Amino acid sequence: MSIEPRNIRISPSVIATDLTALGEQVQGFDPSVVDLLHIDVMDGNFVPNLTIGPGYIASLKKRTSIPLDVHLMIEAPERSIDRYIEIAPWALTVHYESTRFPARLLQAIRGAGIVAGLTINPATPVESVYDLLPWTDMVLIMSVDPGFYGQAFMEPALERIAKLSSFIRSGPRPETMIQVDGGINVRNIGDVVRAGADIIVAGNSAFSGGDVNARVAELKRLANEALPGA
After folding, report:
1. According to the model, what pLDDT value does residue 56 have?
2. CA distance to 2, 31, 49, 126, 175, per residue, from 6 (Å)
3. Which one from 35, 40, 69, 198 is the annotated catalytic residue?
């Protein structure tokens, strides 16, 4: 799997819009602007809220050519991981805190040709993922507590991103991507990119105002301006 480092992508989080209308809405998204679609799966157990499952995601995939970036906020994902692998999204991300078998899950995801992602919550030290990086294509750093839409960005996340980025870029797999999710907007996206993020999850900042293509294009412009040498 070939992954280019520091190729900034914007992944609008569909939890910020009306899920009942998303199948129609995505048909108006410009694939040259909207890089990914971030899909939060919440089980009401690992996080308090309950959202969607594999059936919905499989149906949505038929409506768009934009790659799906699936984030599993579920307890014991090993019990249902095969159903999500069958959908063949671009990325499938599991929480470090949700399973006793992260390496096994990451290997299963990568073995299916899917970007294998590992998420850590704000209270989890970034060092926790270091030994799992050989099987990880993407680390998702949560900059809010998972499962609650509309929270403000937690500033300590910037130091966490920078620490992880420094470790990854100096290691054997510098192409490993860093994704950041939670409270990112036009005011702080530059700081997040400068800290080392490659993929930005955008909720309200992508969907408020109605014109998703225009809002994502603006976020991407600001992100790319923050890259070294830009």
Report:
1. 96
2. 13, 19, 33, 19, 8
3. 40
